[in-house]
Amino acid sequence: MGSGESFPALVLNADFRPLSYFPLSLWAWQDTIKAVFLDRVNVISQYDRVIHSPSFSMKLPSVIALKEYVTMDRRPAFTRFNVFLRDRFQCQYCGEGYPSEDLTFDHVVPRSRGGRTTWQNVVTACQTCNLRKGNRMPRDCHMLPLEPPDMPSTYRLQENGRAFPPNYLHDSWNDFLYWDSELES
């Protein structure tokens, strides 16, 4: 196979739901083939592309399902990206949506005033609102977050991620991905 060719497989949990939506749960074709031979996955759909070895040939899987259910973590990691995902890439002060590279996070209670870097005190902010709020308390500058910050569940982050489909979706994946769009009637 050429070095630039990519045939990722969509990875579903044993309940046929994607392991994650954002980023989408994908495995490289090499990892997928290994999992097939180790009998850890069921092949649900395939590409037209065939790989060969001296003793066998097979179509590359495009959708696989794990044979054993993987329990999702109950507590998501506190990361900048997960804060943006919790807040749906929307400034919690002005309400505008932005790409992640144009966002920052803001401490509702500023660190200089004892605020901590926790789920309950950090919100997504655009750079304009973050500069405007500065190190003031929300009541002092009349800038209250649109939604009170909290620790989201992994399920909530997954559901929020469904609103942001990736640039590339193979046709064989469509039956397993449910993006926030109307279905054809």
TrEMBL record:
Residues 78-131 form the HNH nuclease domain. CDD domains: HNHc. One of its GO terms (molecular function) is endonuclease activity. The keyword Nucleotide-binding does not apply. InterPro entries: HNH_5, HNH_nuc, NA-targeting_endonuclease. Keywords: Endonuclease, Hydrolase, Nuclease. This is 5-methylcytosine-specific restriction endonuclease McrA. It comes from Tistlia consotensis USBA 355.
